[in-house]
Amino acid sequence: MKTAFIFDLDGVIVDTAKYHYLAWQRLAAEMGFSFDETDNERLKGVGRMQALDILLEIGGLSLTEDRRIQLAQQKNIWYVEYLEMLNQDAVLPGAVNFLKKSRQLGLKTALGSASRNASTILKKLDLLPYFDVIVDGNSTTRAKPDPEVFVLGAKALNEPPSSCVVFEDAQAGIDAALNAGMTAVGVGLPEHLEGAALVIPSLQVLTPQSLIIQLL
Ligand code: B16
Ligand code: MG
């Protein structure tokens, strides 16, 4: 029986992916190479420095540690600027209802995000009260597909991994959930979410209750 849900943030609860994309694209443009949506798919769900390394690999650049840190900081400055535009429209379809119903059912809920901006985003959108526990890029040292973020979430909820369902929009996150010994539900396109027990286009298409029954 599943008793806890762990949600990724970007791409599952809120649509912040477009702001990450804009900021990475701007950085690539400054360095003189182009970066498209197919390339961007590889950056989803992974931590900031790892995402930068993938970007630099795409651009064929090898840079010093200091320069890489500087570039990651610049990207984050732009990303945080773009987040100023964030409003309730960025909350993905069905997300709030699904969270509400999960809690009404007595399920425990955690956030498991790679983002170091997760709490700022949740606060801005009044979503903090829907989570018992927040685990984000500030409390982890290893990026998805390492299971750390979800393992910490389950521990904080006091639930065994086998009782947890992870909702993820990125392959790295699905792999992290499976590496943690949890059930993964993919949110997005099936071709980017291999290994998920189920792939849905958004949280709008199912209820927590029907999911629990499906996963029995
Ligand atoms: P930040 P998630 C991830 O969030 C994003 O999908 C990924 O694109 C980003 O690089 C990562 O957070 C780090 O974000 O730069 O804000 O710390 O999908 O794990 O909620
Ligand atoms: Mg995500």
UniProtKB/TrEMBL annotation:
Q: What is its EC number?
A: 5.4.2.6
Which keywords does UniProt give here?
A: Isomerase
Q: Name one Pfam family in it.
A: Hydrolase
Report the InterPro entries cross-referenced here.
Answer: B-phosphoglucomutase_hydrolase, Beta-PGM, HAD-like_sf, HAD-like_SPP, HAD-SF_hydro_IA, HAD_sf, PGP-like_dom2
Q: Which CDD domains match?
A: HAD_BPGM
Supply one GO molecular-function term.
beta-phosphoglucomutase activity
Which EC class does it fall in? Answer: isomerase
Lineage, top-rank taxon, reads: Bacteria
What family is reported?
Belongs to the HAD-like hydrolase superfamily. CbbY/CbbZ/Gph/YieH family.
Q: Which PANTHER family match?
A: FRUCTOSE-1-PHOSPHATE PHOSPHATASE (PTHR43481), GLYCEROL-1-PHOSPHATE PHOSPHOHYDROLASE 1-RELATED (PTHR43481:SF4)
The name of this protein is Beta-phosphoglucomutase
